[in-house]
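Worked problem 6 (solution included).
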Amino acid sequence: MKVYLDYSATTYTDKEVLKEMLPYFTEIFGNSSSQHSYGQDANHAIDKARHKVAVAIGAKLDNEIYFTSGGTESDNFAVQGVAEAYKDKGNHIITTAIEHPAVLNNVKELEARGFTATYLEVDSEGIISMEDLRAAITDKTILITIMASNNEIGSIQPIAEIGALAKEKGILFHTDAVQSIGTSAINVQEMNIDLISLSAHKFYGPKGIGAIYIRNGVKVTRHMIGGSQERGRRASTLNTAGIVGLGYAIEMATESIDIYRAHTLALRDHLVKRILDEVPYAIYNGPKDNTKRMPNNASISFQFVEGESLLLSLDMEGIAISSGSACSSGSLKGSHVLEAIGLEPVTAQSTVRFSLGKSNTLEEINYTVEAVKRVMNKLRKMSPLFNYDKGEPIYV
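Solution. The predicted structure is:
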């Protein structure tokens, strides 16, 4: 049996989404900036997709949506764009210690250019303190950028509270919601979000296409220099087929969010319960309260084995998981997220992430648990930290 449990890294493109996209590769292929009918047909399709994104996130205006190549570009657009546009007002940015590298590395780059930053700590479940956030604000703070849901441990931040505080203080608020679309309800008006990043391949759309919401009136510097596309803020010929796919995918995701949540939550909780009951020395990381955690995420540390060994062993059993976020899996450094929630390095190295999707079944989950048990027996027999005969750590 083959089982895919790495949906936080990427989803497949839904067949219905692909069906919607296909005509824009071969039939309605005009450049949307062209004035002839071929171009205007493409432009009309883009306008429809823009409206679908606006509706999905509760934006007031369709023209507050700008299309990008994905979540990383959208984060760059937001963080760099706001910082440069408002540097005469202030130079301080607030973020967290567990952000995606697309945000963290942008903030570090800005620090090298004279900006200052506060990296809020999180608790053992990966959630910030609102008191810490309030205390971090200065008269030089121009941007708060905090992710909605964490890609590694699934923690959901109090986005509405953060947005309310930012509005009270007159500070712009950006959230990376790449993991949230389709798993958690997002409404930019109700949550007082000024900028939001999203990426289609996280909610059953195509790769290579994303979007950013920029509230009307918010200033950002021009992101890409060239033509006048995207109202002069992001030059480049628009990816019509990808945009159509993103629009259709986000519409499907938001309409079916309750079904998706119920399905993945039931399977995820079953997976976690069985592993914790049947595999000794397994630790469930992140929030235990399901209202504070993505429904499809399970970060589990299997003590006294290496996460990479478990990942590769399960891959041989036909099961795909992650040893951390896909964007950082090639790095030799440990997870900054697991470090931030207080895991010891040896425990962090034994951690893997299971992330479920809408196509997973109970049969697949039970197969996965049995495979984990088989693999763990083999790995712990070889572990220098575990006495397999006694079933206990060597150093206890």
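Discussion: The chain has two domains: 3-9+257-393, 15-255.
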